[in-house]
């Protein structure tokens, strides 16, 4: 069986299973637990438009009878989860060819399962994002405009609430076909500064793809 669970889908399943684990711990009524388990099962199956018999078997929650079984379940799924394809330094340099003295990310990605590749260049105070959309690598260079906010912020990509220095408000330079705007426009959003952690939490790529489309003027 080939890897068939995208990293963000795996993150979603992980959180659903965490909710199930909490239900086991806080609820003594087996009917309620069973109902929650079947609700969780539906949510997991609904992620996939089609599943082979073998894939379906892997995702079945029947083997979980106790919260201690949940880790084994997730470990068995992890083998079939995959992230973005390995990306080379040449591809990154090409993607950000307008950047002077571009700092390359750690490209030791052999075993990493990333939804997106994110890294910070402290010298230029920019956060870079590279992502594989429909088999094409696209990216954005985001100026970090503030990191010192004392109030809680929500990362636009992973939707987690963070405090202080864990997230930053960034503004990528956008491509636009409108000459009246000088060929450029600016947008802004909040994002985790620690891309590894963000990659372990992100459960949907919708927002990420929306932002990247807007930045790259992809209709
Ligand atoms: Zn995040």
UniProtKB/TrEMBL annotation:
Spell out the Pfam families in the cross-references.
EF-G-binding_N (PF07299), FBP_C (PF16571)
- Indicate the segments annotated as coiled coil, or none if absent: none
The Elongation factor G-binding protein C-terminal treble-clef zinc-finger domain extends over 97-207
The segment(s) forming the Elongation factor G-binding protein N-terminal domain are 4-85
Q: Superkingdom of this entry's organism?
A: Bacteria
- Name it: FusB/FusC family EF-G-binding protein
């Amino acid at each position: 069986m080939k890897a068939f669970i995208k990293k963000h889908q795996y993150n979603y399943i992980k959180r659903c299973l965490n909710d199930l684990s909490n239900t086991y711990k806080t609820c003594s009524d087996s009917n309620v637990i069973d109902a929650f388990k079947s609700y969780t099962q539906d949510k997991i199956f609904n992620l996939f438009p089609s599943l082979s018999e073998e894939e379906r078997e892997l995702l079945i929650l029947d083997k979980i009878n106790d919260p201690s079984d949940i880790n084994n379940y997730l470990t068995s799924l992890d083998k079939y989860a995959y992230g973005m394809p390995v990306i080379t330094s040449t591809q990154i340099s090409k993607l950000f060819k307008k950047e002077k003295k571009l700092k390359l990310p750690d490209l030791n990605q052999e075993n990493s399962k990333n939804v997106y590749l994110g890294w910070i260049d402290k010298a230029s105070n920019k956060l870079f994002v590279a992502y594989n959309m429909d088999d094409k690598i696209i990216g954005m260079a985001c100026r970090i405009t503030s990191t010192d906010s004392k109030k809680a912020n929500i990362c636009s990509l992973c939707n987690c609430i963070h405090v202080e220095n864990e997230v930053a408000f960034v503004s990528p330079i956008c491509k636009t076909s409108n000459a009246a705007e000088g060929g450029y426009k600016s947008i802004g959003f909040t994002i985790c500064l620690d891309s590894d952690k963000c990659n372990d939490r992100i459960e949907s790529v919708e927002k990420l793809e929306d932002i990247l489309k807007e930045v790259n003027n992809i209709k």
